[in-house]
Design a protein that fits this description.
By secondary structure, this protein is an alpha/beta fold. Helix content is 35%, strand content 17%. The chain contains six helices and nine strands, in the order ββααβββαβαββαβα. The protein has a seven-stranded mixed sheet, with helices on both faces. Strands 4-5 form a two-stranded antiparallel sheet. β8, α5 and β9 form a beta-alpha-beta unit. α3 crosses α4. The longest helix is centred in the middle third of the chain and has 29 residues. The N and C termini lie far apart (33 Å).
């Protein structure tokens, strides 16, 4: 694959020999340079963790600095109203991003001689969607997966996978108007049906954001699953 296509993004690597790696996937229209700021909030010097925030591969046309993991409006149609042709476009977009994420994480694991079991995948909004898709795509057990204000794309078919053994946490605000709380309920049902062991938190008063309470829950989740 051409090096121009490889994912790039900022990192916070305070440890020469980290025990775990955390991969932070930003939301639609955001970028890794902005999202890496979460690392200092989530870092625990006692655990020895390094953080990475790759930029999604494609640019959002209306946001010069914004990027996306997949096109939200294939053929100008929102995913929720998409037909078979648009959903096929979506699958191709996802597959492209998932392959790039795989190469990106593999490179970091090789650098530190770690495996998927040593990696946390954490995403916000569209980043949460791609984090879950990646886990299912790789079909492996990770240190943990956190879905913040996201959803699971239930229109795709999932088979029983090793990923279901990954510790999982899903967090959402009950005042989220971008991805409404019904997506939280839907995601919980999908995780139950796929036999995931997961924690779920619907935070009262939170909107489409990563609040201090959501950060605290994520900190505790990482600490518990190191």
């Amino acid at each position: 694959m051409n090096n121009k296509n490889l994912l790039k993004g900022p990192s916070f690597e305070p440890n020469d020999k980290p025990r775990k790696l955390v991969f932070l996937f930003h939301g639609y229209g955001d970028n890794g340079e902005n999202f890496i700021s979460l690392a200092k909030n989530l870092n625990n010097p006692k655990i020895n963790i390094n953080f990475f925030a790759p930029n999604a591969p494609t640019i959002v046309s209306q946001y010069p600095l914004g990027r996306q993991w997949f096109e939200l409006y294939p053929n100008g149609i929102h995913f929720n109203e998409a037909g078979p042709k648009e959903k096929e476009m979506f699958k191709k977009d996802c597959h492209f991003s998932l392959n790039l994420i795989k190469l990106y994480i593999k490179k970091k694991c090789l650098k530190y001689k770690l495996t998927y079991k040593d990696c946390f995948i954490i995403g916000f909004s569209q980043g949460a969607m791609i984090a879950f898709e990646f886990g299912m795509y790789i079909n492996s057990i990770f240190a943990g997966c956190v879905l913040l204000s996201g959803r699971i794309l239930s229109s795709l078919n999932y088979e029983e996978s090793k990923f279901s053994k990954t510790p999982m946490m899903i967090v959402h605000g009950d005042q989220d108007s971008v991805l409404e709380p019904r997506y939280f309920i839907e995601a919980c049902k999908i995780l139950q049906n796929q036999h995931f062991l997961f924690e779920s938190y619907l935070i009262k008063g939170d909107e489409h954001t990563i609040s201090p309470e959501a950060l605290k829950l994520t900190q505790n989740f990482i600490k518990k699953n190191v």
